[in-house]
Write a structure and sequence with these properties.
single chain, alpha+beta, Alpha-Beta Plaits, 4-stranded antiparallel sheet, about 30% helix, globular
Length: about 80
Amino acid sequence: MAAIVVVETEFNPPLTDEEHARIGKRLDHCAELRSARWMRSYLSADRTRMVCEFEAPDAESIRDAYRNADVAFLRAWSAELYKR
């Protein structure tokens, strides 16, 4: 069963559209190699913080994907989805 994995990142200077596309391309490839799938991202209005959600075997597989894609991150953790 796949886990929901949340990843927190910060950007200084703020993330540009071009850099976002480059990061996404590298991460997509590395995540796919680890049987993980990007689900959604939330980018702060000032473009300095982002939270991404993945479906993956575990949090370590996403940490490894970020490291191999050479994308810095603050933390990656497994989560549970609560619905009301």
